[in-house]
Amino acid sequence: MRIAVVGATGMVGQIILKVLAERSFPVTELIPVASSRSVGKTVTFGGRDWTIKSLEDAVAAAPDLALFSAGGNTSLEWAPKFAAVGTRVVDNSSAWRMDPTKKLVVPEINADVLTQEDMIIANPNCSTIQLVVALNPLHQAYGAKRVLVSTYQSVTGTGKAAVDQLEGERVGEDVDMVYPYKIDRNCIPHCDIFLDNDYTKEEMKMTQETVKIIGDEGIKLAATAVRVPVQGGHSESVNVEFERPFDIADVKKLLSETDGVTLQDQPEFNTYPMPLMAEGKDDVFVGRLRRDFTTENALNMWVVSDNLRKGAATNTVQIAEVLLKKGFVKN
After folding, report:
1. Does domain 127-307 have CATH number 3.30.870.10?
2. What is the pTM of this model?
3. N or C, which terminus of the chain has less Cβ within 10 Å?
4. pLDDT digit string (tens) for 50-60?
Protein backbone atom coordinates (compact mmCIF):
# COMPACT_ATOMS: atom_id res chain seq x y z
CA MET A 1 0.00 0.00 0.00
CA ARG A 2 1.35 3.40 -1.03
CA ILE A 3 0.70 6.03 1.64
CA ALA A 4 1.40 9.76 1.66
CA VAL A 5 1.78 11.50 5.02
CA VAL A 6 1.27 15.22 4.46
CA GLY A 7 2.97 17.18 7.20
CA ALA A 8 5.35 14.31 7.91
CA THR A 9 7.91 16.45 9.75
CA GLY A 10 5.40 18.08 12.13
CA MET A 11 4.53 16.94 15.66
CA VAL A 12 1.44 15.00 14.61
CA GLY A 13 2.99 13.80 11.35
CA GLN A 14 5.90 12.26 13.22
CA ILE A 15 3.51 10.44 15.55
CA ILE A 16 1.43 9.23 12.59
CA LEU A 17 4.57 7.53 11.29
CA LYS A 18 5.22 6.08 14.73
CA VAL A 19 1.66 4.77 15.08
CA LEU A 20 1.67 3.27 11.57
CA ALA A 21 4.76 1.30 12.57
CA GLU A 22 3.43 0.32 16.01
CA ARG A 23 0.18 -0.99 14.57
CA SER A 24 1.94 -2.79 11.67
CA PHE A 25 -0.10 -0.94 9.07
CA PRO A 26 0.78 -2.49 5.68
CA VAL A 27 2.84 0.33 4.14
CA THR A 28 4.76 -0.80 1.07
CA GLU A 29 5.80 2.69 -0.02
CA LEU A 30 5.85 5.83 2.09
CA ILE A 31 5.54 9.24 0.45
CA PRO A 32 6.41 11.79 3.13
CA VAL A 33 5.31 15.32 2.26
CA ALA A 34 6.40 18.56 3.91
CA SER A 35 7.04 22.22 3.14
CA SER A 36 9.37 23.28 0.35
CA ARG A 37 12.26 23.81 2.75
CA SER A 38 12.14 20.13 3.71
CA VAL A 39 11.80 18.66 0.21
CA GLY A 40 14.77 16.43 -0.57
CA LYS A 41 15.50 15.67 3.07
CA THR A 42 14.56 12.31 4.55
CA VAL A 43 12.46 10.75 7.28
CA THR A 44 13.02 7.30 8.73
CA PHE A 45 10.26 4.71 8.65
CA GLY A 46 10.27 0.93 8.58
CA GLY A 47 14.02 0.69 8.91
CA ARG A 48 14.86 2.88 5.93
CA ASP A 49 15.01 6.51 4.86
CA TRP A 50 12.32 7.99 2.63
CA THR A 51 12.83 11.20 0.65
CA ILE A 52 10.44 14.03 1.41
CA LYS A 53 8.36 15.06 -1.61
CA SER A 54 6.42 18.16 -2.59
CA LEU A 55 2.65 18.15 -2.67
CA GLU A 56 2.73 18.31 -6.46
CA ASP A 57 4.92 15.21 -6.69
CA ALA A 58 2.81 13.37 -4.13
CA VAL A 59 -0.40 13.98 -6.09
CA ALA A 60 1.35 12.89 -9.30
CA ALA A 61 2.26 9.62 -7.56
CA ALA A 62 -1.46 8.94 -6.88
CA PRO A 63 -0.98 7.02 -3.61
CA ASP A 64 -3.70 4.76 -2.24
CA LEU A 65 -4.10 6.82 0.91
CA ALA A 66 -3.07 10.28 2.13
CA LEU A 67 -3.00 11.14 5.82
CA PHE A 68 -3.06 14.93 6.26
CA SER A 69 -1.77 16.95 9.20
CA ALA A 70 -0.66 20.18 7.60
CA GLY A 71 -3.30 22.79 8.48
CA GLY A 72 -6.68 23.78 7.13
CA ASN A 73 -5.59 25.87 4.16
CA THR A 74 -3.37 23.08 2.84
CA SER A 75 -6.18 20.58 3.26
CA LEU A 76 -8.75 22.76 1.51
CA GLU A 77 -6.48 23.20 -1.49
CA TRP A 78 -4.84 19.79 -1.76
CA ALA A 79 -7.20 17.15 -0.38
CA PRO A 80 -9.53 17.50 -3.41
CA LYS A 81 -6.52 17.17 -5.74
CA PHE A 82 -5.55 13.89 -4.11
CA ALA A 83 -9.16 12.70 -4.21
CA ALA A 84 -9.34 13.55 -7.92
CA VAL A 85 -6.56 11.06 -8.70
CA GLY A 86 -8.24 8.32 -6.64
CA THR A 87 -6.40 8.82 -3.36
CA ARG A 88 -8.51 8.48 -0.24
CA VAL A 89 -7.74 11.27 2.27
CA VAL A 90 -7.98 11.31 6.08
CA ASP A 91 -7.60 14.92 7.22
CA ASN A 92 -6.60 16.13 10.68
CA SER A 93 -7.46 19.80 10.21
CA SER A 94 -10.76 21.58 10.84
CA ALA A 95 -11.21 22.19 7.10
CA TRP A 96 -13.81 19.48 6.39
CA ARG A 97 -15.23 18.59 9.80
CA MET A 98 -18.51 20.44 9.56
CA ASP A 99 -18.92 20.05 5.80
CA PRO A 100 -22.25 18.22 5.47
CA THR A 101 -20.84 16.17 2.57
CA LYS A 102 -17.90 14.83 4.64
CA LYS A 103 -17.90 12.20 7.38
CA LEU A 104 -16.47 13.06 10.81
CA VAL A 105 -15.25 9.82 12.32
CA VAL A 106 -14.19 8.33 15.65
CA PRO A 107 -13.98 4.61 14.79
CA GLU A 108 -15.19 3.36 18.20
CA ILE A 109 -18.39 5.34 17.65
CA ASN A 110 -19.34 5.74 14.01
CA ALA A 111 -17.05 3.74 11.71
CA ASP A 112 -20.20 2.36 10.08
CA VAL A 113 -20.93 5.72 8.40
CA LEU A 114 -18.00 5.30 5.99
CA THR A 115 -18.85 4.27 2.43
CA GLN A 116 -17.02 3.62 -0.83
CA GLU A 117 -17.95 7.14 -1.95
CA ASP A 118 -16.10 8.89 0.90
CA MET A 119 -12.86 10.18 -0.59
CA ILE A 120 -12.15 12.88 2.04
CA ILE A 121 -12.75 11.90 5.67
CA ALA A 122 -12.40 14.32 8.58
CA ASN A 123 -10.63 13.58 11.85
CA PRO A 124 -12.27 15.43 14.77
CA ASN A 125 -10.70 17.98 17.08
CA CYS A 126 -8.48 16.43 19.77
CA SER A 127 -10.57 17.62 22.72
CA THR A 128 -13.74 16.38 21.01
CA ILE A 129 -12.37 12.90 20.38
CA GLN A 130 -11.59 12.10 24.00
CA LEU A 131 -14.91 13.57 25.14
CA VAL A 132 -17.08 11.55 22.77
CA VAL A 133 -15.24 8.27 23.42
CA ALA A 134 -16.23 8.61 27.07
CA LEU A 135 -19.63 10.23 26.51
CA ASN A 136 -21.09 8.05 23.76
CA PRO A 137 -21.64 4.82 25.73
CA LEU A 138 -23.26 6.82 28.53
CA HIS A 139 -25.45 8.66 26.03
CA GLN A 140 -26.58 5.38 24.49
CA ALA A 141 -27.51 4.05 27.94
CA TYR A 142 -29.01 7.10 29.63
CA GLY A 143 -29.59 9.82 27.02
CA ALA A 144 -27.29 12.83 27.48
CA LYS A 145 -29.24 16.04 27.14
CA ARG A 146 -26.90 18.71 28.56
CA VAL A 147 -23.09 18.63 28.78
CA LEU A 148 -20.79 21.21 30.37
CA VAL A 149 -17.07 20.82 29.67
CA SER A 150 -14.03 22.66 31.00
CA THR A 151 -10.79 21.70 29.27
CA TYR A 152 -7.20 21.83 30.51
CA GLN A 153 -5.31 21.63 27.23
CA SER A 154 -1.65 20.83 26.67
CA VAL A 155 0.63 23.26 24.86
CA THR A 156 1.37 20.44 22.41
CA GLY A 157 -2.05 21.14 20.92
CA THR A 158 -0.67 24.43 19.59
CA GLY A 159 2.50 22.88 18.17
CA LYS A 160 6.25 22.84 18.60
CA ALA A 161 6.57 26.62 18.88
CA ALA A 162 4.28 26.58 21.93
CA VAL A 163 6.34 23.81 23.53
CA ASP A 164 9.44 25.91 22.86
CA GLN A 165 7.78 28.92 24.54
CA LEU A 166 6.95 26.89 27.66
CA GLU A 167 10.36 25.25 27.91
CA GLY A 168 12.16 28.54 27.28
CA GLU A 169 10.15 30.38 29.93
CA ARG A 170 10.92 27.66 32.47
CA VAL A 171 14.67 28.26 32.13
CA GLY A 172 14.41 32.04 31.91
CA GLU A 173 15.16 32.44 28.20
CA ASP A 174 13.79 35.14 25.91
CA VAL A 175 11.27 33.30 23.74
CA ASP A 176 9.01 33.89 20.78
CA MET A 177 5.51 34.39 22.16
CA VAL A 178 3.02 31.99 20.59
CA TYR A 179 0.40 32.85 23.21
CA PRO A 180 -0.62 36.40 24.13
CA TYR A 181 0.70 35.81 27.66
CA LYS A 182 3.32 33.78 29.44
CA ILE A 183 2.18 30.14 29.71
CA ASP A 184 4.59 28.84 32.37
CA ARG A 185 2.92 28.93 35.82
CA ASN A 186 -0.22 30.24 34.14
CA CYS A 187 -3.59 29.17 32.70
CA ILE A 188 -4.91 30.98 29.63
CA PRO A 189 -8.69 30.67 28.99
CA HIS A 190 -8.17 31.18 25.27
CA CYS A 191 -7.77 28.32 22.76
CA ASP A 192 -8.01 29.38 19.10
CA ILE A 193 -9.72 32.64 18.10
CA PHE A 194 -12.70 34.34 19.71
CA LEU A 195 -15.95 34.27 17.74
CA ASP A 196 -18.87 36.71 17.62
CA ASN A 197 -20.66 34.85 20.45
CA ASP A 198 -17.58 35.30 22.72
CA TYR A 199 -16.85 31.58 22.69
CA THR A 200 -13.59 30.50 21.10
CA LYS A 201 -13.45 28.45 17.93
CA GLU A 202 -12.09 25.53 19.99
CA GLU A 203 -15.12 25.66 22.28
CA MET A 204 -17.59 25.74 19.42
CA LYS A 205 -15.79 22.87 17.67
CA MET A 206 -16.62 20.69 20.66
CA THR A 207 -20.28 21.75 20.59
CA GLN A 208 -20.77 21.13 16.88
CA GLU A 209 -18.53 18.10 16.37
CA THR A 210 -19.99 16.16 19.31
CA VAL A 211 -23.48 16.43 17.86
CA LYS A 212 -22.28 15.36 14.40
CA ILE A 213 -20.27 12.36 15.60
CA ILE A 214 -22.85 11.00 18.03
CA GLY A 215 -25.65 11.89 15.63
CA ASP A 216 -28.08 13.45 18.10
CA GLU A 217 -28.98 17.12 17.81
CA GLY A 218 -30.73 16.91 21.18
CA ILE A 219 -27.36 17.06 22.98
CA LYS A 220 -26.74 20.59 24.25
CA LEU A 221 -23.07 21.20 24.99
CA ALA A 222 -21.17 24.28 26.19
CA ALA A 223 -17.41 24.38 26.75
CA THR A 224 -14.71 26.53 28.29
CA ALA A 225 -11.29 25.72 26.82
CA VAL A 226 -8.17 26.58 28.81
CA ARG A 227 -4.50 26.26 27.87
CA VAL A 228 -2.30 24.97 30.71
CA PRO A 229 1.49 24.51 31.08
CA VAL A 230 1.38 20.74 30.47
CA GLN A 231 2.87 18.63 27.66
CA GLY A 232 1.43 15.17 28.23
CA GLY A 233 -2.16 15.52 27.07
CA HIS A 234 -5.53 17.20 27.47
CA SER A 235 -7.76 16.91 30.54
CA GLU A 236 -11.48 17.65 30.75
CA SER A 237 -13.90 18.18 33.61
CA VAL A 238 -17.26 16.98 32.29
CA ASN A 239 -20.74 17.38 33.78
CA VAL A 240 -23.49 15.44 32.01
CA GLU A 241 -27.21 15.67 32.67
CA PHE A 242 -29.09 12.58 31.47
CA GLU A 243 -32.70 11.98 30.54
CA ARG A 244 -32.81 8.71 32.49
CA PRO A 245 -31.57 7.73 35.97
CA PHE A 246 -28.31 5.88 36.40
CA ASP A 247 -26.41 3.93 39.00
CA ILE A 248 -22.73 4.83 39.54
CA ALA A 249 -21.75 1.15 39.68
CA ASP A 250 -23.42 0.59 36.29
CA VAL A 251 -21.66 3.64 34.84
CA LYS A 252 -18.29 2.27 35.98
CA LYS A 253 -19.04 -1.16 34.54
CA LEU A 254 -20.16 0.34 31.24
CA LEU A 255 -17.05 2.48 30.87
CA SER A 256 -14.74 -0.35 31.91
CA GLU A 257 -16.19 -2.44 29.07
CA THR A 258 -15.96 0.34 26.45
CA ASP A 259 -13.39 -0.08 23.67
CA GLY A 260 -10.73 2.60 23.90
CA VAL A 261 -11.51 3.58 27.51
CA THR A 262 -9.43 2.83 30.60
CA LEU A 263 -11.29 3.39 33.86
CA GLN A 264 -9.12 4.84 36.64
CA ASP A 265 -11.52 5.53 39.48
CA GLN A 266 -10.28 4.50 42.92
CA PRO A 267 -10.09 7.74 44.92
CA GLU A 268 -9.34 5.78 48.08
CA PHE A 269 -5.99 4.87 46.49
CA ASN A 270 -5.49 8.27 44.78
CA THR A 271 -6.14 6.59 41.44
CA TYR A 272 -7.47 8.96 38.78
CA PRO A 273 -6.45 10.02 35.25
CA MET A 274 -3.59 12.45 34.75
CA PRO A 275 -1.84 13.66 31.58
CA LEU A 276 1.50 12.63 33.07
CA MET A 277 0.35 9.01 32.95
CA ALA A 278 -1.63 9.25 29.68
CA GLU A 279 1.27 10.54 27.59
CA GLY A 280 2.29 8.09 24.89
CA LYS A 281 -0.82 5.95 25.30
CA ASP A 282 -3.80 5.54 22.98
CA ASP A 283 -6.70 5.07 25.39
CA VAL A 284 -9.02 7.67 26.85
CA PHE A 285 -8.75 7.60 30.65
CA VAL A 286 -11.85 8.28 32.75
CA GLY A 287 -12.18 8.75 36.51
CA ARG A 288 -13.49 10.92 39.38
CA LEU A 289 -16.96 9.53 38.64
CA ARG A 290 -19.52 10.95 41.04
CA ARG A 291 -23.13 11.98 41.06
CA ASP A 292 -23.93 15.68 40.77
CA PHE A 293 -26.03 16.16 43.88
CA THR A 294 -27.29 19.59 42.76
CA THR A 295 -29.60 18.28 40.05
CA GLU A 296 -31.38 15.11 38.99
CA ASN A 297 -29.69 12.45 36.80
CA ALA A 298 -26.36 14.29 36.45
CA LEU A 299 -22.81 12.94 36.54
CA ASN A 300 -19.36 14.48 36.98
CA MET A 301 -16.31 12.85 35.42
CA TRP A 302 -12.68 13.60 34.58
CA VAL A 303 -11.40 12.63 31.11
CA VAL A 304 -7.74 12.57 30.02
CA SER A 305 -6.02 11.56 26.79
CA ASP A 306 -2.81 12.14 24.86
CA ASN A 307 -3.95 14.78 22.37
CA LEU A 308 -1.23 13.94 19.84
CA ARG A 309 -2.09 10.23 19.80
CA LYS A 310 -5.81 9.39 20.22
CA GLY A 311 -6.56 13.07 19.76
CA ALA A 312 -4.89 13.12 16.35
CA ALA A 313 -2.45 10.52 14.99
CA THR A 314 -3.93 7.31 16.40
CA ASN A 315 -7.49 8.20 15.43
CA THR A 316 -6.24 8.98 11.91
CA VAL A 317 -4.55 5.58 11.60
CA GLN A 318 -7.60 3.85 13.08
CA ILE A 319 -9.73 5.44 10.33
CA ALA A 320 -7.22 4.13 7.78
CA GLU A 321 -7.57 0.66 9.34
CA VAL A 322 -11.34 0.85 8.91
CA LEU A 323 -10.91 1.80 5.25
CA LEU A 324 -8.62 -1.19 4.81
CA LYS A 325 -10.98 -3.57 6.59
CA LYS A 326 -13.93 -2.40 4.50
CA GLY A 327 -11.90 -2.89 1.31
CA PHE A 328 -12.04 0.80 0.35
CA VAL A 329 -8.24 0.79 0.06
CA LYS A 330 -6.44 -2.33 -1.09
CA ASN A 331 -3.64 -4.13 0.70
Report:
1. no
2. 0.96
3. C
4. 999 999 999 99
